[in-house]
Design brief:
The chain folds into two domains: 2-325, Alpha-Beta Barrel (TIM Barrel); 341-455, Galactose-binding domain-like (Jelly Rolls). The protein is 26% helix and 25% strand. It contains ten helices and 16 strands. It has helices at 2-24, 29-37, 50-53, 74-83, 120-131, 157-170, 190-200, 238-243, 280-293, 311-325, and strands at 41-45, 88-94, 134-140, 176-180, 205-208, 217-221, 249-255, 296-301, 341-343, 365-366, 374-392, 398-407, 410-417, 423-443, 448-449, 451-455. The strands form three sheets. The protein has an eight-stranded parallel β-barrel with strand order 1-2-3-4-5-6-7-8, surrounded by five helices. Strands 9, 11, 12, 13, 14 and 16 form a six-stranded antiparallel sheet that branches. The chain has a two-stranded antiparallel sheet with strand order 10-15. The chain is elongated and about 75 Å long.
């Protein structure tokens, strides 16, 4: 173990020296943005107190032994990223709880004082170098207000600057920093934060998920692919993307776990959710969209209590990597996309029936609040030969359904099933139909469907 730590220290020193040489050179940020675009997609690693609390946010932690991991496998993270065809790992260095995943000198609330006792960031840097993966960093700008007693005088701008300096001078080149504004800017404005980061490492690109517009990267938390300036592609950052002229690159991210009740999604959830995972085909579609628009796509995964990725995440990401290396045939265009649609009921105008036929998984149809059944219908415009439908239902609420087509005044069943989510493709003997519907017969909660698309016969 001592030898390994010496090796890590030596690698870190060499990286710091190389970084000093890099920092002395003038930096073309537009060129840096193009370099980052070429990485295409990466793994967002969220590992902190929330991995053990089962909550997205975990305020008020006084005893850092809540982070009870005694092992970590950063080689597994980097190896899986390589197998998935990823270009980088985006690592959470500090969440809103103030717990640092590197050996900072600014606070005792750090991983080297927890039971693990290891500088996870240093080990990850070594693993990334081993597998040829670039490194990016997530950093919460502020901390929970009830954490103020953990740092004399509270979390200060000086402390924020000191932490960023450590991250940007001790761990080698950092491709970009993903700043989370959820707990304010930490007393240092975004403009000042950008200037400080560029002073420490001129080639690092900067992005903020909300707050004062600044930096070179527009961050689309829970968003999707699209050209820079497409406000609809983001969530919290919509106004900034529509107005800020300094963006050189767009990034979007969301968790690999679909929505569920209980537990976290951005962090490791609960053991009972270990088999919940988005499909490889849906991730591959978003990868292709990222490449199309010159975006980068960060898929979030949460290491478990032992610091390892879930088996299902590894399997799914490897499948995506295989698709990237050996692209499958592109699916035939949907016959139903953009066609007139109706539904049994809607949650409100933002969840109307058309949202299930718009080709955008970031939007969805939702039935009226309290509904436990309902239907979605599309009018293809004329009698058309059909033989396949796909249903994307990320919240996994459907318990029984039928796919039906209108014949005269009656609805005829094409297929019948139970669960759908997160994605199901259903083939059936070809028929000629104009009106097709997904009839949800039973649901555990208000039904919502991201996409219901109709295709021609399977060839």
């Amino acid at each position: 173990m001592k030898l390994k730590r010496r090796i890590i220290a030596t690698v870190t020193l060499i990286a710091s020296l190389a970084l000093s040489l890099r920092a002395a050179e003038p930096v073309d940020l537009a060129k840096r943005a193009d370099e980052l675009k070429s990485l295409k997609w990466g793994m967002f690693i969220c590992w902190s107190f929330s991995s053990f609390s089962g909550k997205e946010w975990t305020p008020g932690v006084k005893d850092i032994s809540l982070f009870r991991a005694t092992s970590v496998d950063t080689d597994q993270w980097a190896r899986t990223a390589k197998e998935a065809g990823m270009g980088y790992i985006l690592f959470l260095t500090k969440h809103h709880d103030g717990f640092c995943l590197w050996d900072t000198k600014t606070t005792e609330r750090k991983v080297t004082k927890a039971p693990l006792g290891r500088d996870v960031l240093a080990e990850l840097k070594q693993s990334c170098d081993k597998y040829g993966i670039k490194l990016a960093l997530y950093f919460s700008e502020g901390e929970f207000k009830d954490n103020k007693d953990y740092h004399p005088g509270g979390y200060t701008p000086e402390m924020k600057k000191a932490q960023l300096k450590e991250l940007l001078t001790q761990y080698g080149p950092v491709e970009y920093i993903w700043f989370d504004h959820a707990q304010t800017d930490g007393g240092l404005s975004h403009a000042e934060t950008v200037a400080w980061c560029h002073q420490c490492q001129p080639g690092t690109l900067i992005g903020f998920n909300s707050g004062e517009p600044a930096g070179e990267v527009t961050l689309r938390e829970c968003g999707h692919a699209g050209p820079i300036g497409d406000a609809k592609a983001g969530s919290y950052n919509q106004k900034n993307e529509a107005s800020h002229k300094g963006y050189l690159l767009a990034e979007f991210t969301y968790p690999i776990e679909p929505g569920h009740k209980g537990g976290a999604m951005w962090f490791y959830s609960l053991p009972e959710h270990d088999n919940l995972c988005r499909s490889a085909s849906s991730l591959y579609r978003d990868y292709l969209a990222a490449v199309k628009y010159g975006n980068i796509f960060s898929i979030d995964v949460g290491p478990d209590y032992n610091g390892k990725l879930r088996d299902i995440d590894v399997k799914t990401l490897r499948e995506v990597g295989e698709m990237i290396k050996n692209p499958p045939p592109l699916p035939a265009p949907a016959l139903s996309e953009g066609k007139p649609a109706t539904a049994s009921s809607i949650w409100d105008k933002n969840y109307d029936a058309a949202k299930a036929f718009d080709g955008d998984e970031a939007t969805r149809w939702g039935a009226a609040i309290g509904a436990r059944a309902g239907w979605l219908e599309v009018d293809l415009g004329n009698e058309t030969h059909i033989g396949r439908v796909t249903v994307i239902e990320k919240f996994k609420r459907i318990q029984e359904f039928a796919v039906e087509y209108r014949q005269g005044e009656a609805w005829k069943e094409l297929a019948h099933g139970t669960t759908v989510g997160p994605e199901k493709q259903i083939d059936f003997p070809p028929v000629s139909a104009r009106r097709v519907r997904l009839n949800i017969l039973k649901a555990s909660d208000t039904p919502t469907v991201e996409e219901f698309q109709v295709f021609g016969p399977v060839k």
